[in-house]
Specification:
single chain; about 170 residues; alpha+beta; 4 strands
Length: about 170
């Protein structure tokens, strides 16, 4: 039997004390901590990949908005922008479609300098209402579709893939 001190005899209880953790408790705590850290490491890789995708989508949106604003500022000649493709020569005529040709050339430079791998932009414009020369009662609206394709970057957690964003806009001359 262990000797007791006077304070232990007065209270009527014998106190025993443990000092420190056992080896088993330490190993369990280390295991729980390592599982948590591995989970955080996986999430940070996924987060980085999503951040890169969001950055690419922001660039694509700005490129499409740039062309949409160019078409809006020349809305009397919307059909001049039809079949604009950044992968081919501009289809506009230098003598009759000067503004649309300049917009096409500048947009091609913007897309090629966007730092998006394999980026390609296409603009299509179609008439929604009857031609005002044939029918004077018309709203003369056009449906403008801007399609941009690009390749995502390969990362440790994802493979490269082709992505497409399609932006549509209705343009009506004033």
């Amino acid at each position: 039997m262990r000797p007791t001190t006077p304070s232990q005899r007065l209270s009527g209880q014998v106190q025993t004390s443990q000092q420190g953790f056992t080896l088993l408790e330490t190993m369990v705590a280390a295991g729980v901590l390592s599982v948590g850290l591995l989970g955080l490491a996986g999430l940070s890789g996924m987060s980085l990949g999503k951040n890169v995708d969001a950055n690419d989508m922001t660039r694509v949106t700005n490129i499409a908005a740039d062309m949409a604003e160019r078409i809006q500022s020349n809305r009397q000649r919307v059909l001049d922008y039809h079949n604009t493709n950044t992968a081919a020569a501009c289809p506009q005529n230098v003598s009759t479609q000067r503004m649309a040709l300049g917009d096409c050339t500048q947009w091609q430079a913007l897309v090629s300098n966007s730092d998006l791998a394999g980026a390609n932009g296409v603009v299509t414009a179609t008439r929604l209402d009857p031609d005002p020369t044939a029918n004077p009662v018309t709203m003369n609206r056009f449906l403008v579709t801007i399609t941009i394709n690009w390749q995502t970057r390969r990362t440790d957690v994802s493979t490269a893939r082709t992505k497409t964003a399609v932006f549509t806009n209705i343009v009506a001359p004033e």
